[in-house]
Amino acid sequence: MVIHVQWLICSIAQLPLMGSSSLAPAKPSTIKEGVLLLHIDSSPMLRNGETGDWIGTFEGHKGAVWSCCLDTNALRAASGSADFSAKIWDALTGDELHSFAHKHIVRACAFSEDTYFLLTGGVEKVLRVYDMNRPDAAPREVAKTPGSVRAVTWLHSDQTILSSCTDSGGVRLWDVRTGDIVRTLETKSPVTSAEVSQDGRYITTCDGFSVKFWDANHFGLVKSYNMPCTVESASLEPKYGLKFVAGGEDMWIRVFNFHTGEELACNKGHHGPVHCVRFAPSGESYASGSEDGTIRIWQTGPLTNDDVDMTTNGKVKVSAEEVEGFQISDERKIKEEDLAD
Q1: Which of 144, 165, 186 is the last residue of a domain?
Q2: pTM > 0.90
């Protein structure tokens, strides 16, 4: 089951080194667009963000991995697991650098933008901040949360923490300095996904049948769209912000116009509920992770001025190629097969 994916741009000099005892060896690869970090079962994996080629697997957890992330320099990875631990990994060698013991399942983790801190949350209902320069020091416990933590992220230059819970609605924003809740973004259902846009303007959340966009500075609700199914995850296109993708229980990946909510494309391919969708930093592709244990990369291609006009008029281009060992779907072939049936 794939429930988390993350894209990150890195230079060729930052590519993981192979041959470590911890990071299972794979062929070195050139990553032009970014690194996709994903996890399946108990092992987080790194893949080439352009082709889907496997780079390596971080081995060491003894339970299912619920969350994983890379720091902004692609030098370290972090993971949260059902084995009651969060681990820090060297992304170049695959070596385990540190393990932080918890008292219950760790459901979410996130590096601060400056990479100095790691935020964790889970079934304990406690948010913890670990100092990466002093990993042996006791963590700072920001606050008790109303329920089991589902998602966490940083915003406002690491001055604010965002968290959501599995058994209560809303997104809570915490002041890192005081540990106090400064604002709650109200939703009717528990928030399953939260993403801060690349430019820092919007917070994208999913709850029940709804995708919402919030002003990340003033916290007002900017847009709210009803979805055709219970939606698990959504992601805003990072370059132009003209469209967003969403996936959920009906196994389809849908593309919508950000300004109007009009459905632009509906992509078929997964055979189980979709738990996570994320755009690549370039906006030219997006990834979807599913209950069926696969990740699919959907290529949209670069936007020209004509493409921008077409997008606002309700049309979108999607194309891709299939890569062995990794599901990369061609929407055109899928549509042709559906018509043939």
Answers
A1: 144
A2: no
